[in-house]
């Protein structure tokens, strides 16, 4: 092993330490956590996980999150596909301004929108529903999906489209049976990043829900403040939220940089 | 190259409607509040630019804006050089590449409130791994609920932990796109490591590095959840960043006017940096 590999090695070690601590904590009993320091769980317990999987307040948090995140991913990618195609293939009035305006929404601070979002979604009677959070997250996920997909589509030569038209394909048939399969990696990456950014967001999801659609993140913060020192439970809930990302990340490993850079790498 | 076609607007329309609904309606609400005074009961009075003047002159705003810039500045000067160094040291091919990529990306995929909770658990005195190590093994008094300096160091280290990988992954993507022939040519010319970095690697990383810096600037400027969960803005107001302060005013005190004026000033700064980002990006597309 070359000595320079020590740099990424120690960096990854640094990244893994807090994660290890969270996971280790989730297997400890409350007594052990408060009783003193131990590097490994002394009395290994699954009690914290059992609590989460049997208590509806907890497991409904996960179900709610998964519902609105999935809804959001489907909506974002579905509407972003034609738009990204338009941006990558055509010039039209105001295209550059529109593309820029989309970006500003990806960059907008969620805190600015928290209160008006609450009022808007209350006014149209969607407060505390899954669709409200799914629509609200479109604010930053649609721009993200459009930018990522546009990046992938611009890499496909225009000759593909022209050949298809010469061969007598109609636009819808060309788009679904030729174009989509060509950029399926891009669709996967866009979907992954929409899923991820909706999954990690808390402020808007918390503002727009109360009971019925309360996300896991909100359940966690409320537990943290109300129940005091339920650290083991909190750690178990946290560990479970890492799993979806950890599973899917392997499949998009070659596109992580592209996705985070809005398709511009 | 691209053909002119106004019908493309129909393709963009669904996106336009959805994003406009989410962006313009709330934005207009904010604009509305920012120029009016309310005493409840849904009665509003014209206030003009009074709130803006008040906010721009208020020491509280100056303080949180100052803390915000300090935070953003600190994480940039740590994350960017560190990210470049790690990207340069990473293996370019072989079994360990995907392992590194996946492990490094992991922190970025963790929900932001969990990042806060995780660091809270990690740094608790006596209970947390880091807190125990500093207090009981090294004998350094460390308690971020009491010491502003400790709280600051913790949120900066947390952000470095959370987002340095973004810089690493982007720089790495730039580095692997350099053909081997460049390195061979440099070797024949007898170029030093520094010269290889300065004249081959750095120019190739220029674009990705610009993206990384601007993204890190924007996202750290908008940061809310992680420091809110970790320190709640405390001790005192010492780690109250711009977003935290804004949410305190808007949802905590329900001072709609000042909160709205502050939102618009905040948004204007964000807009300016987005414009910078866009200009640099499109300039590159044309080259």
UniProtKB/TrEMBL annotation, chain A:
InterPro entries: BP-dep_ABC_trans_perm, MetI-like, MetI-like_sf. Its main location: membrane. PROSITE patterns: ABC_TM1. The chain crosses the membrane at residues 5-23, 66-87, 99-118, 130-149, 178-200, 231-252. One of its GO terms (cellular component) is plasma membrane. It is found in: Cell membrane. Belongs to the binding-protein-dependent transport system permease family. Keywords: Cell membrane, Membrane, Transmembrane, Transmembrane helix, Transport. This is Carbohydrate ABC transporter membrane protein 2 (CUT1 family). GO terms for biological process: transmembrane transport. Residues 62-252 form the ABC transmembrane type-1 domain. It is a multi-pass membrane protein. It holds the Pfam family BPD_transp_1.
TrEMBL record, chain B:
Gene3D superfamilies: MetI-like. The keyword Membrane applies. It comes from the Bacteria. It is a multi-pass membrane protein. PROSITE patterns: ABC_TM1 (PS50928). GO terms for biological process: transmembrane transport. Pfam families: BPD_transp_1. One of its GO terms (cellular component) is plasma membrane. Its main location: membrane. The keyword Cell inner membrane does not apply. The chain crosses the membrane at residues 9-31, 69-88, 95-112, 150-175, 260-281. Residues 65-277 form the ABC transmembrane type-1 domain. Keywords: Membrane, Transmembrane, Transmembrane helix, Transport. CDD domains: TM_PBP2. It is found in: Cell membrane. PANTHER family: GLUCOSE IMPORT SYSTEM PERMEASE PROTEIN GLCT, TREHALOSE TRANSPORT SYSTEM PERMEASE PROTEIN SUGA. Belongs to the binding-protein-dependent transport system permease family. This is Carbohydrate ABC transporter membrane protein 1 (CUT1 family).
């Amino acid at each position: 092993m070359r000595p320079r590999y020590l740099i990424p090695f120690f960096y990854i070690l640094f990244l893994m330490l807090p994660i290890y601590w969270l996971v280790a904590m989730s297997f400890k009993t409350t007594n052990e956590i408060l009783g003193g320091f131990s590097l490994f769980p002394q009395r290994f317990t699954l009690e914290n996980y059992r609590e989460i999987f049997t208590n509806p307040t907890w497991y409904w948090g996960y179900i709610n999150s998964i519902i609105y995140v999935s809804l959001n991913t489907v909506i974002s990618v579905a509407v972003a596909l034609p738009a990204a195609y338009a941006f990558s293939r055509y010039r039209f009035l105001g295209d550059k301004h529109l593309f820029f305006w989309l970006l500003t929404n990806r960059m907008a601070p969620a805190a600015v929108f928290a209160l008006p979002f609450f009022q808007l979604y209350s006014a149209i009677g969607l407060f505390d529903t899954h669709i409200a959070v799914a629509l609200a997250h479109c604010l930053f996920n649609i721009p993200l999906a459009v930018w990522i997909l546009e990046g992938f589509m611009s890499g496909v030569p225009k000759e593909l489209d022209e050949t298809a038209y010469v061969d007598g394909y109609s636009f819808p048939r060309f788009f679904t049976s030729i174009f989509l399969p060509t950029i399926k990696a891009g669709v996967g990456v866009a979907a992954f990043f929409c899923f991820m950014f909706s999954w990690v967001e808390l402020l808007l999801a918390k503002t727009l829900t109360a009971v019925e659609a309360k996300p896991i993140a909100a359940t966690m913060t409320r537990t943290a403040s109300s129940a005091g020192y339920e650290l083991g439970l909190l750690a178990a809930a946290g560990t479970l939220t890492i799993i979806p990302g950890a599973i899917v990340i392997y499949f998009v490993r070659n596109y992580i940089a592209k996705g985070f850079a809005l398709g511009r790498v | 190259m691209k053909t002119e076609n106004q019908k493309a607007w129909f393709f963009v329309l669904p996106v336009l409607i959805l994003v406009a609904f989410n962006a313009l309606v709330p934005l207009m609400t904010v604009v509305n509040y920012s120029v009016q005074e309310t005493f409840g009961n849904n009665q509003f009075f014209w206030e003009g630019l009074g709130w803006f003047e008040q906010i721009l002159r208020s020491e509280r705003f100056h303080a949180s804006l100052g803390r915000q810039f300090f935070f953003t500045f600190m994480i940039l000067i740590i994350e960017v050089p560190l990210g470049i160094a790690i990207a340069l040291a990473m293996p370019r091919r072989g079994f360990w590449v995907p392992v590194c990529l996946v492990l490094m990306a992991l922190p970025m995929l963790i929900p932001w409130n969990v990042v806060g909770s995780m660091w809270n658990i990690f740094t608790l005195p006596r209970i947390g791994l880091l807190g125990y190590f500093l207090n009981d093994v090294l004998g350094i008094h460390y308690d971020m609920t009491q010491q502003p300096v400790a709280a600051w160091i913790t949120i900066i280290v947390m952000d470095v932990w959370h987002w340095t990988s973004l810089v690493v992954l982007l720089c790495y993507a730039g580095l692997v796109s350099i053909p081997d022939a460049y390195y061979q040519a440099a070797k024949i010319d007898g170029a030093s490591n520094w010269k290889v970095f300065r004249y081959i690697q750095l120019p190739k990383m220029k674009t990705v590095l610009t993206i990384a810096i601007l993204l890190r600037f924007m996202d750290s400027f908008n940061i809310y959840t992680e420091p809110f969960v970790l320190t709640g803005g405390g001790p005192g107001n010492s780690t109250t960043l711009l977003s935290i302060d804004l949410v305190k005013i808007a949802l905590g005190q329900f001072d709609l006017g000042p909160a709205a004026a502050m939102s618009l000033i905040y948004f204007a700064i964000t807009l300016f940096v987005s414009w910078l980002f866009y200009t640099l990006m499109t300039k590159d597309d044309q080259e």
